[in-house]
Amino acid sequence: MFPKNTYVNRRNILKQTLKSGIVLLPGNGESSMNYADNWYPFKQDSSFLYYTGIDHIPDLYFLINIDTGEEILFGNNATPEEKVWIGAPEKLESFAEKSGFSTVKPLDQVASYLKTQLDKGLHVHYLPPYRGAQKIAISNLLNIPLAEVEANKSTALIQAIVAQRERKSAEELVELNEAVNITRKMHEYAIRNTKPGMTEMEVAGALNGIAVSGGGGLAFPIILTKNGQYLHNHATTATLNEGDLVLCDSGAYNKMGYGGDMTRTFPAGKTFTPLQKDVYNIVLNAHNTAIEVLKPGIRFKEVHLLASKKLVEGLTDLGLMKGNADNAVAAGAHTLFFQCGLGHMMGLDIHDMENMGEQYVGYTPELEKSTEFGLKSLRLGKELQEDFVLTVEPGLYFNPFLIDERRAQNKYMDFVNYDEVEKFKNFGGIRVEEDFVITKEGSDLLGEPLAKTVADIEKLRNN
Amino acid sequence: MFPKNTYVNRRNILKQTLKSGIVLLPGNGESSMNYADNWYPFKQDSSFLYYTGIDHIPDLYFLINIDTGEEILFGNNATPEEKVWIGAPEKLESFAEKSGFSTVKPLDQVASYLKTQLDKGLHVHYLPPYRGAQKIAISNLLNIPLAEVEANKSTALIQAIVAQRERKSAEELVELNEAVNITRKMHEYAIRNTKPGMTEMEVAGALNGIAVSGGGGLAFPIILTKNGQYLHNHATTATLNEGDLVLCDSGAYNKMGYGGDMTRTFPAGKTFTPLQKDVYNIVLNAHNTAIEVLKPGIRFKEVHLLASKKLVEGLTDLGLMKGNADNAVAAGAHTLFFQCGLGHMMGLDIHDMENMGEQYVGYTPELEKSTEFGLKSLRLGKELQEDFVLTVEPGLYFNPFLIDERRAQNKYMDFVNYDEVEKFKNFGGIRVEEDFVITKEGSDLLGEPLAKTVADIEKLRNN
User: Fold this and answer.
1) Which residues of B touch A43 (CB under 8 A)?
2) B133 and A132 in contact by Cβ < 8 A?
3) Closest listed residue to residue A432, CA positions, set A205, A102, A116, A191
4) Which of A221, A265, B354, B448 could cross-link with A35 by S-S, CB 3.0 to 4.6 Å?
5) Residue B8 burial by CB count (10 A; 0-12/13-18/19+): exposed, middle or buried?
């Protein structure tokens, strides 16, 4: 946990912003795999964690009654019989002390407490739930029909929390750096140890192990694939062969629950082919160009479009595209090869606060999210501020289905040399991703640098 | 997948048993970690998998209308846009063909189909759901209030499925052997590579990696701890030191979804202390004694009590217990050190079919589960049959809280030398666990043998 004052201050700011009502933050429960008591690794709710610092304990509710000033943790300490199974975990009262509040009540009192407050006419603010069990709990506790739970979420609470969590403090940056360094270790391992003949799963398994050993586990399902042209293709039992490109997008949480998210693309054999090198350098150039312009005040949507233009210019040099690059980007022709967004916010969540809604996290009332193919997958568009943490992850993805579809639709005919593109239908995909914090003047890389030029990656492959 | 006939036969047997009504088998959805689209590894529902063979695809419903003979898979194939993200997965129609049924309908037709059947007065059988999202789905599809979903489960369906799944076929045993061999690899790695100075998490991470590389991932959260006296103590950031005993209880699924579950206890240093050796041998002796009597016809509760008696005899030799061993077990005095059950059924679930209810899986109307401390944690009590697969996992757990509590209660005074027991409050816990299939005459070990004597474990530690 951070020092007590961190949590006290975070809660004070929240209270000052909301001014009245009750904030209900449900902690997560255990998540069942294939029967009730067979659990996935426990993951605390990020906002619960942000305001209380309490991790690893399922079935807690934290409640701030802004009108009365009460801050109450509802939950149960281990019973004598539970000590047979789990020993004597730290008491909730001890966590309360470390978090700077004093009241702990048994779990079964949360319902009656809320009922009393609802009867008084107080408004209960809650975030949109993302697990079935949370939905059921909120429905029961607040007497809201299940189908209306989502609609009754508090946008005031969402906006207040986003405004706090989107700017990372110095102590959070220490944690994020650590998470990215664990993530970096996973990628260095993959680059050094992948060999032709191994399966995707074999390599992914080792990375999973590094993430767990790091203390926080996997931040998201590992993408480790020779079919990087499909954006979210998870590791399979496919064998990696000489000549394949391996796209690895993976990351870890650290012990404090902060995440890292990186991508490297490297050859399954010792070296890139000349063509792989050329395409790689186009992506890397877009990546570097984007990083150079990161600073407070620039809209990330502009950075995305700039990176897209660099991709188009590179593809034009390679003979796959033609015409004016600005016009191509304006027409969306780059989305034939770069179908997603340049990056996203990162913090306690890998797509930070994604469940609160991208319109609040990545956009503003003045800059709404586009519904166009490509831009609709850009999770972050708004003006950057100092202390934002985000990923930069341009890529080129030669998706054969999309190529066939767009060609059949006669789309982007002014900008795409489809005959040339046909030759890339077995090429795969390349992405280069790193994590940055926005500083007063620009940005800083999170974590220690890791090989990202063709030469440096080949050097790691050959060591 | 197994050959088509496997699934056709399994469904035919189910239909013959139930005779009429509709069987609704919901497949699992993705399970959200800390926002909706950040998922834990997908785990298919075991009964859905057993009757269809379809894994890795979320959001499917399989439905057998026994009265009309219809077998329908409700689900959606990837849309063109989804192919950008995941490529072109195998079509549902292809899985249907491999599974031996012909009808695939879009997901959104499951509700109207069921409504029509309910209107006709047909009974819909379903299993008790174990995820919030499943509960909500069943409530909506069958128009049952959420609070009554559990009560309306079909005990006829539960009993029919248990009768099928509890006896493993030859082709299932091949898979179970593979799963146990992946599990064995995890344990051999742990015994060979654990060193003083490493954290529990570091070792657990590597084992997690081996499980993922094996193709099916972790079958349950890894218990890897120097505090083995707490039965379900998961790996923490605690450092393993010379002199510590390391209890590792972990297992993997194989590619077909079958699980393995083993435990080994070994010294963090190179050798056991003389006292650790003595206690280890008591557990090993109980383990071996239990294995010797495994065969069709014997109640597993008897095996549990026999193993308990062996533990008492060993503890008596060691000076911790006294008096007649049979009387001690009858009085439950062994539960001061062995608080749980000797084993459980294993298959597609590690605690096989646990969510259907232990009264159906592990007991019979003639042999109900005890509510006494100790026996109430024995998941399997009933007569063994050929082709049952189960774990044998006796242990001795010196839980300081329980020792204090029982002594304060003056419990088991005729059988326990509490002054001697006090000296073991820092000893830890020891468990030895392997997996067996019941054969015509006895039992066979699943997987290749792994060191389990003190000498063999020390040999592995020193290689």
Assistant:
1) 33-34
2) yes
3) A191
4) B354
5) middle
Task: Give which of B269, B110, B223 is closest to A85, Cα–Cα.
Answer: B223
A194 and A224 Cβ atoms separated by less than 8 Å = no
- Distance CA(B111)–CA(A431), nearest Å, equals 41
CA distance A145 to chain B (A): 11
pLDDT tens digits, one per residue of A298-349:
999 999 999 999 999 999 999 999 999 999 999 999 999 999 999 999 999 9
Strand partners, A103: A72
Rounded to 5°, angle at Cα B85 from B29 and A430: 135
Provide the 3-class DSSP secondary structure of residue A231: coil
> Which position has the token pair 């033609």?
A322
ipTM summary value: 0.93
Scanning B110-250, the segments in alpha helix (DSSP H) are 110-119, 132-142, 155-165, 170-193, 200-213
- As beta bridge partners, residue A345 has A390
Domains in chain B, start-ordered, CATH in brackets?
4-165 (3.40.350.10), 170-462 (3.90.230.10)
For residue B225, list its beta bridge partners: B247
Considering only CA atoms, which of B346, B166, B356 is closest in space to residue B253?
A: B346
Exposed, middle or buried by CB within 10 Å (0-12, 13-18, 19+), for B37?
Answer: middle
pLDDT tens across A44-82, in order? Answer: 999 999 999 999 999 999 999 999 999 999 999 999 888
Within 8 A by CB and 6+ apart from B261, the residues are B183, B219, B220, B249, B251, B346, B350, B391, B433, B435
**Do A180 and A447 form a contact (C-beta atoms < 8 A)?**
yes
CB contact under 8 A, B36 and A355: yes
pLDDT tens digits, one per residue of B409-431? 999 999 999 999 999 999 999 99
Beta carbons of B37 and A231 less than 8 Å apart: no
Mention every residue, 6+ apart, whose C-beta is less than 8 A from residue A30. A39, A40, A42, A58, A59
pLDDT tens readout for residues B98-135 = 999 999 999 999 999 999 999 999 999 999 999 999 99
Tokens of A187: 């990628």
Q: Can you list the alpha helix ranges (DSSP code H) found in B166-273?
A: 170-193, 200-213
Phi, psi of A276 (to 5 degrees): -60, -40
Q: Is the dihedral of CA B198, B200, B203, B205 positive or negative?
A: negative
d(CA B58, CA B188) in angstroms, rounded, equals 34
Bridge partners (DSSP) listed for residue A124: A22
Strand partners, A430: A396
Structure tokens at B306: 């026999």
Q: Under 8 Å CB-to-CB from A153, ≥6 apart: which residues?
A: A126, A127, A128
Q: How many beta carbons lie within 10 A of that of residue B463, not counting itself?
A: 7
C-alpha neighbours within 13 Å on the C-beta side of residue A372: 13
What pLDDT shows up at residue A199?
92
B386: DSSP letter: T
Whole-Å CA distances, A450 to A123, A181, A187, B88: 49, 10, 8, 33
DSSP secondary structure of B305-353: HHHHHHHHHHHHHTTSB-S-HHHHHHTTGGGGT--S-S--B-SSSSSTT
Quote the minimal CA–CA distance from B130 to chain A in Å.
Answer: 5
Residue B74 one-letter amino acid: F
Judged by phi (left if over 0) then psi (alpha if -120 to 50, else beta), residue B191 lies in alpha
Q: Which helix (H) or strand (E) segment is A389 a member of?
A: strand A389-392
Instruction: Say if residues A129 and A47 touch (Cβ distance below 8 Å).
Output: no
CA distance B441 to chain A (A): 32
As a whole number of angstroms, the distance between CA A112 and CA A270 comes to: 65
Give the integer Cα–Cα distance in Å for A463 and A457.
10
Closest CA to A132 of B413, B206, B394, B149: B149
Asked if the Cβ–Cβ distance from B86 to A232 is below 8 Å, we say yes
Partners of B8 in beta bridges: none
